[in-house]
Design a protein that fits this description.
heterotrimer; A mainly alpha (433); B alpha+beta (377); C alpha/beta (171); A: 433 residues; mainly alpha; 2% strand; globular; C: 171 residues; Beta Polymerase, domain 2; two-stranded parallel ribbon; 3 helices
Amino acid sequence: MSVIAPNFRLSSFIRSILDNLFWIIVLVTLAGIPAVQIVLFYIEMPVIDGELLTPFLALTWLADPSRVLPIVKALMATDFFRIAVFPGFGLAALLAAGTIFVERKMLAKLQLRVGPFYCGKVEGILQLAGDGLKLISKEIIIPAKADKPIFWLAPVAFVGTAAAFVSLIPVAPGGWVVADVELGVLAVFAVIGFFPIITVLSAWSANSKFPFIGGIRALHQMISFEIPLILSLLGVVMLAGTLNLTGIVESQGSFPWIVFLPVGAVVFFICILAELERIPFDLPEAESEIVAGWLTEFSGMMYGLVQLGTYLKLYAFAAIFTVMFLAGWHGPMIVPPFPEEIITDGIVLGPVTATIPGLPLFDQAMLNGTIWFVLKTVAVIFFILLPRGVFPRIRIDMLLSLGWYKLIGLSFINIFIALGLLYAGVLGPGGVI
Amino acid sequence: MSAQLPPGLQLEKTDERIMTLNVGPQHPGSGHMRIIVQIDGDYIVACDPDPGYVHRGEEKMAEYRNYITNIPHLERPVIHDSCNILYPYVLGVEDLLGIETPERAKYVRVIASELNRCVYTLYWLAIYGIFLGHSTMFMWPTGDRELFIDLLEKMTGARVTHAYMVPGGVRNDLPANFEDVCLRQVDYFEKRIAEYADVFYDNPILISRTENTGVLSRTDAIRLGVTGSVLRASGIDYDIRKREPYDVYDSLDFETNVLRAGDAYARSKIPWLDMMESCRIIRDALSKMPKSGSVRVKLKPNPKGGMESVYRRVESGRGALGCHIVSRKKPEPYRVKLSVGSFRNLIALPYLLKGERLGNMPSVYWSLNYWPVEADR
Amino acid sequence: MEQSQPPEATPPEISGHAALMIQRFPDGTVLSEDTARPQVLVPKERILEAAAYARELGYDHAESVTGVDYPDQNQIEVVYHLGSYTDDTLNGTILALATRAPREDTPKPGRDSTRLPSLREVFYSVEFHEREIFEMLGVYFEGHPDNRRLLLPEDWADLPPLRKDFAIKGR
C-alpha cells in the first residue's frame, strides 16, 4: 500500500507547527511591531471619539475594528501613499503590468497564435511574474571595459525618471496627483528631456559598438521628435490658458481638446510612438540591425529595470495624452453615491448595528474620475500597442525627415488652428464655449 | 602576413571615422554567417561576408558513401527544401546509371518539389518579415507552413527531412486520399497568401523602405552570375523549369515571374509570386498525373557508374541548383559538387551593400534569398 | 577520368561548341561531345584564352566551379561550368571548361606549384568559387585579388580537405 507520506510522525508535525509559531511570534515582536510603530509615528493620526490616536493607541485596531478605517484614511492622506500607491507608482505599475499582458495576448491573437498560456492556469496570467522571477535570478554581466558607475546608474536613473514623469499626472479630481506643479507641462518636457541623456550615457558607458549605435540613434530620434512633441501641446496650452495639468483637465469640462485640435493630437500620438521606441519607430532597439540597440549589454534585473521604466513611460505618455486631449477624468457619473444611511445609522444586521466611523473611504467624484481616466488611458495604450502587429520598422533617414519636415509643419498648423480659435473668441479664456 | 590573418582580426590602420561591425554569427540579423561591415556614420563603406560556420563537408562525405546512402545526408544543407536539393543529384545518378523513371513518379516528384518550394519560401518569408521588424509576417508564414508540412508528412513520412527522391522514382507512392487533401490545402493556401499582400507587400512603410535599395541592374546580375529570384527580379527571364525542363515540367502550364526593378522589394516579391505559380503547377500536375502505376524502378544493389561526369541542374527555392557528379566505376561517386543558389547569390552581397545605409542591411541581405546552411554545405 | 585519349584527328566531325573550342585550341581534349553538356579540357597555359573564347561564344557567367583531385595522375582538375543568361540559343547548354594543375604530395597552399590562372577577370562570378577551391584543394589562383579562406575555420592547419589523401576518421 502506498502512503502519501511514509515517514510521517505526528510528534514532528506538531513540533514543526510550534516551531513556526515561535518564529512568527519572535519576528512580529522584534521586527513587525516596531516597524508598524515607526510607520504610524510619521503619520498624522486622526481624532476618534475626541481622543487623538497615538501610535500606541493605534495598535488597538487589533481589538477594535472600527478604528481601522480612520487609520487607513490617515495613511491615505500621507505623501508616501500618493507616491507609492495610488496616483503614483502602484497604479502605474499595475497598468504597466496589464499593458504587458494585453500586449502579448493581443499580438498573439493578431498573429493567429495563443501567446502566454500555461503560467498561472488562466490564459497565462502569471507569465509576467514568472518572467520577472527569471530576470531577478539571472546573473548580471557587466562588460569588462564598461564605465561601471554610470553603467549601474543608467537603469536606475531610467526608472527614476519614468517615475518622476508618472508623478506629474493628475488622475482624479480633488488633488489626486503626486506633484501638482504650477508649470506642469514644462515639468513634463523637462522630465522627457532626461531620457535621451540617460540613454546616451548608458550606451556610451557600455563601451560596446552596438549599444553605441543604438544610443546615437535613440538620441537622434528622441531629440528630433521632442520638438514636434512640445509644439503639438502648445495649442492645448493656449486654449486652456494654463500650464498646470490639473488646470488643463479642468478646462475640458465641456469638450475634450481633441475635438478642436485633432491635428495636434495625431502629431502628439506619433511623437509618443517615437519617444517610446515602439514599432514602427523601434530603431534604437532594431534587432536585425544592431542586436538590441542600447539595451544590448544589459542583463538580468538591469534589463528588467529598463523594461519597467519603458512601460512606466508608456503609461505616463498615454496618461498625458488623456490629460491633454481626452479631458482626463471628465466623464458621465457612473458611480452610485455612497448610501447616506450607512454613515448616519450604521449597518443594521438584525439585532446588531455596526457604526463604522471613517466612511466613505473615497468620495464619489474621485472614484468616477479614476474610472474614466483609467478607461481612456487604457484605450490610448491599446492604440500605442496596435502598430506593432501591422508595421515593419522604418529607417532612420525616413524617421528624421518625418520628424523634422512633416510633424513640425503639422504642429505649426495645429498652433495656427488654436490661435485662430482663440482670436475668433470661440475658445480659450473668455471664449464662447 | 595580414592576408593570412582571419578577416575580422586584421589590424589595418583605418580611418578613425570607420567603425567595423561584426554582424554575426551570434547576431539576430545574420543567420549562420558573419558579415563584417565597415560603416561611416550610417553608411556601409565595405562589406565582407564570411560564411562557413555551418560547413559540414557534405561533398567530402558523399565520396565515402554509395549512390543510395548519399541521399539522406545530401538533403541536410536545406532541410526545408530537401526534395529540391536532392533533385539534381537524383537526376544525375539516373543519367549515370541509365535508369528510366516511370511517368507517375515524375509527376509525384514535381508535386513534392513544388510543395517543398512553398515550405522553403514561407520560412524565408517569415525571416524576411522579422528582419524588417514585422512580427506578424514572421508568425503567419510559419503557421501556414504547417499545412504543407503536414501534406508532405502524409506523402513521405517525415515532416522536413523527407529523403523522398531516389534514383528511379520516389521512395513510396502517394497515400490514398492524397489528391483531395492536397487540392483542399492548396485552395486554402492560395487564399491565405493573397492576404500577405494586405499586411506585408502593400504596406507603405515596407515599400518605402525596400524600394530602390540594393538595386542590382540587369548587366550586373549577369556579370555576377546570380540566380533564381535575384536574377528574375533584375529583369532576366531565366527559370530552369522553363529553359531546361526536367522531368515533366515541359508539359505543365505555368509562368515565370519577372520584375524589372532589381531592388530589394522586387527581390522579396518574386518568391511570393512563385508560390502562386507553385500552386498552379501542383493543381496541373495532379490533374495530368497517371492515376496508377509504378513510382519506383528496382535498382541493382550497389550500382556502379561509368567513367564519366554529369552535371544536372534544377530550379530550387533559391535558384539554380546544379549537381556535378564524377564517377569512376565505383559504387561511391568520385566527387559530388553541389552548386547551390545561395552560394552564387552571396557574391552580390558586398556589391549591393556598399554605399547602403546600415538600416538597409537586413532587408538587402535577406532579399538575396540566401540560406547560409546551404551555401556552406 | 580518362583524358589521355588523343583528340579527334578530324575535328569538324564533332558538332557543337566542343568542336569550336577544339578547333581553336587543338592542344585541348574533348571529354564529351554532347550538345547540351560539351566538356573540354584545356591546358592551364591557355585557359584564359579559352575562357575569353567561351565568352565570345555567348557564355556569360560561371554556374559552378568544381575541383577534383586525381592523386594517381598527380593532377588536380578544376572544371568551370559556364552558362548563358543572354543567349537564348544556349538555354540548356552548360559548357564544362576543365583545366589541370600539378599536384604536390605535401601541399603548402599558396606557396607550391599547384597554381592556375584565375578566371575572375573574364567571369566575375567565379570569385567565391575559386576561393573555395583554394581552401578545399589548395589550388592557388594567380591574379585572384582575394585568395583567402572562405568556408573553413581560420585556424585550419590540416591538408586541404577535399584532397583524396585527407581521410575521414573511421572510413
